[in-house]
Design goal:
- By secondary structure, the protein is mainly beta.
- The protein has one domain.
- The protein is about 5% helix and about 50% strand.
- Strands 1, 2, 3, 4, 5, 6, 7, 8, 9, 10 and 11 form an eleven-stranded mixed beta sheet that branches.
- The longest helix is centred in the first third of the chain and has 11 residues.
- About 35% of the residues are buried.
Amino acid sequence: LAAAVFATAAAGCGDDAACGAGDAPAQGVTATAGDTTVTYGAFQAAANNDCRTASPPAGVVSLTVFGGQADPAGAAFVTLCLPRPDLLADGSTVALSGDVQPVPDDARVQVIDVQAALPGDCAWTIGDAAPTGTATFEGFCDQGVAAAGFALTLDGTVTVDETCAGGAATPRQVTLAGRVAVAPQ
C-alpha cells in the first residue's frame, strides 16, 4: 500500500519543489520567418476541455495553453491544446500535431493557432500544413494546473499564411522556438 501511495504522489508531483516554471522567462517563445521575428509571452494554461479525445479517462480535462504577442507589440496569440495532460510529466518531450478533429488518442500537443500582427499592415494566421517538431515540459504536475505552473519549450516548424493590406495570402515557414513560463489561469 505504501508503494502505491508513493507512486501516485510522485506521478502527480503535488505542489512540491519539482513543480513549477523554475527559471523559465515570462517571454521566450519566438516565431521566425526570414528576417521577421515575433516574441510571445505571458503564457497561461486553462482547463477548458475544448480539445478532448473521444473517451478520456474520468477526471481528465484538456488544457488550452496560450501566450500573447509581446514584441513587436500586437494583439495576436500562439494557442496550443493538450488533449491528454494526464499522459504528460516533468521532462516529457512530445511531438507537435495540427488541429485535427476528432482529436486522435495519440495527440499530446496540438498547435491550434500561430498569429502575428506585423508592421506594414501585415498579419500571420496558421496555415493548413501540419506542424513538425516537439514540445518539452518541465515542472509539469497535476495535469498542468498546479499553482506553480510549468515551463514549456517549443522547437518546431509551422506554416502560416501572411497577408498584407488585404492582399492575397502567402504561405511562410515559421520556426517556433524557445522556453517560457506557463501560469495556471
